[in-house]
Amino acid sequence: MAETIANGRADQCANNIDGPTNPMVTPILTDLYQFTMAYAYWKAGKHNERAVFDLYFRRNPFGGEYTIFAGLEECIKFIANFKFTEDEIAFIRSSLPPSCEDGFFEYLRELDCSDIEIYAVTEGSVVFPKVPLMRIEGPIAVVQLLETPFVNLINYASLVTTNAARHRFVAGRSKILLEFGLRRAQGPDGGISASKYCYMGGFDATRRITVFLCFDSNVAAGKLFGIPLRGTHSHAFVSSFLSPDEIIEKSLQHRDGSSVCEDFVSLVQTWLNKLKWSHLLGGIFSETNQSELAAFTSYALAFPGSFLALVDTYDVMRSGIPNFCAVALALNDLGYKSVGIRLDSGDLAYQSCEARKFFRAIEKEFGLPGFGKMNITASNDLNEETLDALNKQGHEVDAFGIGTHLVTCYAQAALGVVFKLVEINNQPRIKLSEDVSKVSIPCKKRCYRLYGKEGYALVDIMTGENEPQPKVGERILCRHPFSESKRAYVVPQHVEELLKCFWPGNSDKTREDLPPLKEIRERCIEQLDKMRPDHMRRLNPTPYKVSVSAKLYDFIHFLWLNEAPVGELQ
């Protein structure tokens, strides 16, 4: 066992690729029937036959017309370190019938992915149904063992990245989006994965880890992936204080170190009195909640350079906002600039507008440039619909913290990724169904995206492996894979080949580098910019066209007729 693990580590060093983020992603993270099929292949002497599988999905999620491809890096990490341990082989042996021959387990012991080739769309790309996200080539038994982990690694990753991109589209580019979903995610792995892929899909930060920066966010994800962190305090922190008398250490040094305020608590109280009798603010509040004031003051003493307060524990306008402003103004006297507030309940549109008026009134009355632009963050079970409603109502929110609906993909549970055999021993294969959407597109294919004059993507087209590549300025016939009447000529102004080699196996092909997360995120944003607005809209989006070449269309239907049994009526 030790020798096997050591060999696995040696392979990892040779590939210079770390293992999967989740250590549970091992060769036995699969369905039992993958091993029963592998044994049957081995028993029949078919296990080394060269097979080609396509990994794709059939429908875009969330009622939309686009999907973001994610999870490729984890798949490559998985196969780069694919090796069974002795413990795993022993468990597989115990799970299969005792009639299975010892030679099969010797075969598993030597198995790796050195003879596998993987071609894939670049992670972070916009993708569409039926077009292969990945093409996996290699010995059929090995490729079959990759099916379940690959589908698992791509399914949720692509779904939650798409969900994040859709929230970003509704919120707009100018707003800050924070992923708040760890505590509601489906377990630790769901939480960690969500943070990574929400960032990829356009979110700005996660709240996983520490209270140091601005919003309670996922710290573990920040450490693993370099995602910016945000974190503040909770309602429990506010309600844990009873009065300012609890604050023992009251001194705070000026930001430039030139002096020390010995009684910051009194300075806060002084500012609260000024606000109470302010000409512009008079009548908005009288007596605020002193335990809340104590909590804000204590938090500011701990984090004077990043003070952000949750203001809805008791009453937003009659307590939370005035208390926050008193603390922020006291900090301003000592050279610190506060971050802002968070609203977590109630009428977010109305409260944000009233808070903005309060901040602007303070800026005007006390001559404090920039105070009126204090950051306002909103949370409270937000989703696409509530973001859209807030936009229509009018609001002053600068940042949104989105959790449950985002990371759980509440609107759709799964993407529906499938893994289908399309060729074996150079013989194309097709999977038929009475449901046309489930009919597979056979043979090893090349996939292209054709762009129009305005720079927008017009259509994706699949061709046979040996067909000539579409050329700029030359007309090409694009056909619907299954509908005879749906066809169009396209004259592309730019042609992009979609599938690239990310794992060459033993071949001499050049392997594409895995880009860093930040670069994938930038690609996602860039790709969405190349989509026509009518494909992107939330309601009744225009379907994006996915097509095949005329030659591939003819071959699909030839193979279909050849494989489908002919009925007989009597």
Summarize the structure in short.
This protein is an alpha/beta fold and 570 residues long.
Radius of gyration, whole Å: 29 Å
Query: Widest sheet: strand order?
Result: 15-14-1-5-3-21
**Straight-line N-to-C gap:** 64 Å
Main pleated sheet: 6 strands, antiparallel
Global outline: elongated
Beta-strand content = 15-25%
Give the C-level CATH assignment of the largest domain: Alpha Beta
Roughly what is the average pLDDT, rounded to an integer? 92
Catalytic activity: 5-phospho-alpha-D-ribose 1-diphosphate + nicotinate + ATP + H2O = nicotinate beta-D-ribonucleotide + ADP + phosphate + diphosphate
InterPro entries: Aldolase_TIM, N/Namide_PRibTrfase, NAPRTase_C, NAPRTase_N, Nic_PRibTrfase-Fam, Nic_PRibTrfase_pncB, Nicotinate_pribotase-like_C
Pathway: Cofactor biosynthesis; NAD(+) biosynthesis; nicotinate D-ribonucleotide from nicotinate: step 1/1
EC number: 6.3.4.21
